Amino acid sequence: MSDKNPALMSGIPELVVLRLLAEREMYGYEAARALKVVSAGALSFGEGVLYPALHAMEARGLLRSREQLAGGRTRIYYRITPKGRRRLERLTSGWRRVSEGVERILGASSHE
Amino acid sequence: MSDKNPALMSGIPELVVLRLLAEREMYGYEAARALKVVSAGALSFGEGVLYPALHAMEARGLLRSREQLAGGRTRIYYRITPKGRRRLERLTSGWRRVSEGVERILGASSHE
DNA sequence: TTGTATACCTCGGCATGCGAGGTATAGTTG
DNA sequence: CAACTATACCTCGCATGCCGAGGTATACAA
């Protein structure tokens, strides 16, 4: 009865965030909006996904952060590390493999 | 340190199994091998994934099963239901949306 | 009789997505 | 001034779901 398919994305937050940060330094809130915009609305991660993901990635050495004040509010900018870039490459090729595998099955029909 | 990225697939078992069964009736063990073959090795789900998934889908009315003996062994054939087909359509379009969203982000670069 | 292939199954851990809720500042609008 | 919205960060805990490990049983070959 669940109208929503809650899980069709796993590992995807890590992949796309790394990809965004590979382009340029960003702070969390900014990344959340960018994700939505660049994916044309297809992807949208709540803060309950994004912030824990950023913290986990920093703890694993994939990102480094620095604080910066902007009009009374604190922004925490994240920058990708060399290790993060290597991780991004692995995740990207993993994604391609899975994606192509799924496409092969979706496109497979014995009688078309 | 985890060399493996254990999760880049979620909801995918349900999607691809439904897609296979939309083509023709199959039993579990058969589906497992077909999945691997058709996806050209990119996808491969252990029995700890497959059987629970089949049971869950049957419980939700997406599949119906029948037993059949084949050389002393029991095979349980699963057939997709109309409800299962509707589910397949929703999952497929969900997959496309996510997939295109990811591609957009992977392909996004400001300085290429 | 040991091993391999077929064919089914369950249990438990681990990771993760994600909503819900919380804090705080700045600016706008009635 | 009070209320609201936007910005910007955060944590907790539930639910889902992947997946390895282990278990049962038959048939056949080495």
Can you describe what's shown?
The structure is a homodimer of 112-residue chains. Chain A has 112 residues and is an alpha+beta fold. Helix content of chain A is 54%, strand content 16%. Chain A has helices at 12-23, 28-38, 47-59, 82-106, and strands spanning 26-27, 63-70, 73-80. In chain A, strands 1-3-2 form a three-stranded antiparallel beta sheet. In chain A, helix 1 crosses helix 4 (82-106). Chain A is globular and about 60 Å long. Residues 1-7 of chain A have low confidence and may be disordered. Chain A binds chain B through residues 5, 7-12, 15-16, 19-20, 23-24, 35, 38-43, 90-92, 94-95, 97-102, 104-106, 108-111, and chain B through 5, 7-12, 15-16, 19-20, 23-24, 35, 38-43, 90-92, 94-95, 97-102, 104-106, 108-111. The structure holds a DNA duplex (30 and 30 nucleotides).
